[in-house]
Amino acid sequence: MKKLLLTLTLAAAFYNISAQEITLDKIYSGYYRGKGIAGITSMKNGENYLVIEQGGIAKYSYKTSQKESNLVDGQFESYEFSDDESKILLLKDSQPIYRHSFLGTYDVKDLKSGKVVSLNEGKPVQEPRFSPDATKVAFIVDNNLFYQDLNSGKITQITEQGVKNKILNGLADWVYEEEFGHARLYEWTKNSDAVLFVQLDETEVPEIYIPIYGKMLYPGEMRYKYPKAGEKNSVASAHIYRLEDGKKTKVNLDSFKNYYIPNVIQTTNLDEIVLITSQRTQNASDVLKVNTKTGVVTKLFTESDDKWIDTDNVTLEFLEDNSFLWASERDGFRHLYWYDKDGKLKKQVTKGNWEVTDYYGYNPKSKEIFVQTTEKGSINKVVSKINIENGKSQLISNTEGNNSANFSKNYNYFIETSSTVSKPYTFVLKDGNGKVVKELQNNNDQLQKLKTDNFVEKEFITIPNNAGDQMNAWIIKPKNFDPKKKYPLFMFQYSGPGSQQVSNSWDNGNGIWFEMLAQKGYIVACVDGRGTGFKGAKFKKVTYKNLGKYEIEDQITAAKWFGNKSYIDKTRIGIFGWSFGGYMASLAMTKGADVFKTGIAVAPVTNWRYYDSVYTERFLLTPQENPAGYDENSPTTYANLLKGKFLLIHGTADDNVHFQNSMEFSEALIQNKKQFEFMAYPDKNHGIYGGQTRPQLYQKMTDFILENL
Fold first, then answer.
1. Angstrom distance (rounded) from CA 274 to CA 284
2. Which residue intervals define the domain Peptidase S9 prolyl oligopeptidase catalytic in the entry (predicted)?
3. Interatomic CA distance for residues 458 and 523, integer angstroms
4. pLDDT value of position 372
């Protein structure tokens, strides 16, 4: 009995110790998983909102915050209303294709009659969209555009030329989807009598072959068109299809910057669609108004920049009189400009050494726009309402942290989603002036579990670089930090153009893993150097034509700055990054070999010649125009400099940053007689996940850090 009691006591003591630690098992078992609210949508009446729940799509009252009913019963992945809310499009099942695209099976339910119609006879489609009059739904099958009459069920084929890896109608190809941020390239006119679509001819675009191993006797392969820097892109053209006679007309864009056509936007005018086009260098874009009855194209204005335009981050919002708001960095920060319907600038609406990061809408009654900004510092995002005529502004969210909003249609209410580095996501119902109505959801349980396991808050600091800038940074110190001791430093970064990792927001991703590393005796830090976002165009665009040069200089500078601190062991500094961050980690271990002892690069670009045209040329131009910008900032060029312990990781089926990058870098390291570790993940894409992949990956990285740093 005494022996049993001793055993139980020891077991209890061990449990209490382990319960006070963050572990990979806890992270990947979902022990720390947070809660959220899915599919929030405001209804047209401004009095109700919808969310996706276990039993269906639930209807709630803004005024009482109470559930009133289930609008639709069943299990759905997502939903979308027709403009008049008479019908709802329900996604039942989906199969991902690339980052944004997927095949899905859909039902359309008439909310008045209860009648349910299967879209495309229940067969999978892409990018369905209600006509504004709610009588039809357009969709894409096998690269061709169709529409279905919801009254008769008749399906009409709009295009016939669609062929995989050749012609796409109304649908983005791989590079458009990845780098312009969406898959749909068509739009209905406001009066539902025409569809304007972009056709992409990728016949001449080089094809990439990715082996798929699985358990097949002979490996299969995935083939798709992937334009690398300097290579041929798909040829874009715009076309109008009129439902009345079934005729298609090509839009004449010869007089405009028409190399890329990334945006097709509905206006408030019945017979107008706006196209945003760009030249290949992406430093000039035309905003074009197309009359869908006559085919006449009118240029509203041209946006230009001496470096680049963020063609992947377009804000063009039409007001009820067809005037519109446009986001631009022309004064050095991203702000909103108000144009009349003919493209004449009325005024700059927002101004200051801060940026507009999101746009939520316009209330014509109060003449107010609702936006998210960095007005309270570049690491914070807050929500404000601004009078478009007199510029009067009112902050209606929390004053710090990362805050976003989902507004009622009449702007009398909004649901605020907020977090800070020390507080997980909360969902709060507020009135239009920011007064709290009710907290809908918090994650206090998640925070308490982490605090029980000795969670340590990040500290924000700034670090000077060689150009005189103050770089934002965060740092996590071990729980019982002793400034008299020396600690190894583990640095994380992403560093890509316009990105941000140093943010006053909760991190459910790597953040908890970093806490675990701090518990194991490491100081973990992150620095946003030159090229990153939300500090103005000058700070972001200094990297133009030299992608990687200033970014790695700043990471090396930051590492040296930390190394001069009495509590950092400067002989034990490591770095980690994924994708662009993996590229930076590879540069750090070569160009910064005298500073960094250990590095982990996951899915890195190692030669920008191998990456896609749209992204790479935006910042570097083509290899033919700027060969030095490519070669002088490639880690492969500096493979002979590697000194420290280096772990290279890549998924073999990465459709974004091809496995080829790590293969070329590996060969360069081998030919320079450099020892390193390499981990290939069979048939895994850029995210490297599925089954037990992530737990294994993070155990591998953890062990590598513990053994080598």
1. 16
2. 515-709
3. 11
4. 98
Beta bridge partners of 405: 416
Q: Is 86 exposed, middle or buried (0-12, 13-18, 19+ CB in 10 A)?
A: middle
Position 169 scores a pLDDT of 99
- The span from the CA of 130 to the CA of 188, in Å, is 8
**444: how many CB neighbours lie within 10 A of its CB?**
10
* DSSP secondary structure letter of residue 401: S
List 136's β-bridge partners, or say none.
149
Average pLDDT over residues 535-552: 99
Contact (Cβ atoms closer than 8 angstroms) between residue 478 and residue 22: no
Question: Whole-prediction pTM value?
Answer: 0.95
Residue 174's SS3 state is helix
Instruction: Write the single-letter amino acid at 234.
Output: S
Number of DSSP helices (H) and strands (E) in the chain, helices first: 12, 43
Please report, for residues 493, 576, 578, 646, the alpha-carbon distance to residue 686 in angstroms, rounded to integers and kept in the order given: 17, 16, 9, 20
How far from 674 is each of 393, 552, 643, 645, 700, CA to CA, in Å? 58, 21, 8, 10, 21
The string of DSSP codes covering 415-440 is EEEEEETTEEEEEEEEETTS-EEEEE
* Amino acid at site 103: L
Q: Any bridge partners for residue 492, and if so which?
A: 526, 576
Q: How many CB atoms within 10 Å of residue 359?
A: 16
In angstroms, the CA 174 to CA 49 distance is: 35
Domains, the chain, with CATH or none: 456-708 (3.40.50.1820)
Chain segment 612-640, per-residue pLDDT in tens: 999 999 999 999 999 999 999 999 999 99
Q: Which residues lie below 8 Å from residue 679, measured CB to CB, with a gap of 6+?
A: 647, 648, 649, 650, 697, 700
Nearest-angstrom CA–CA distance, 572 and 563: 9
**Which of these, 334, 415, 446, 357, lies nearest to 50 by C-alpha position?**
415
The whole-number pLDDT of residue 19 equals: 53
How far from each other are the two terminal CA atoms of the chain, in whole angstroms?
Answer: 46
The separation between CA 607 and the C-alpha centre of its own chain, rounded to angstroms, equals 23
Bridge partners of residue 156, in order along the sequence = 147
Buried b (16+ CB within 10 A) or exposed e, 185-216: bbbbbbebbbbbbbbbebeebeebebeeeeee
Q: What angle do CA 631, 633, 638 make, to 5 degrees?
A: 85
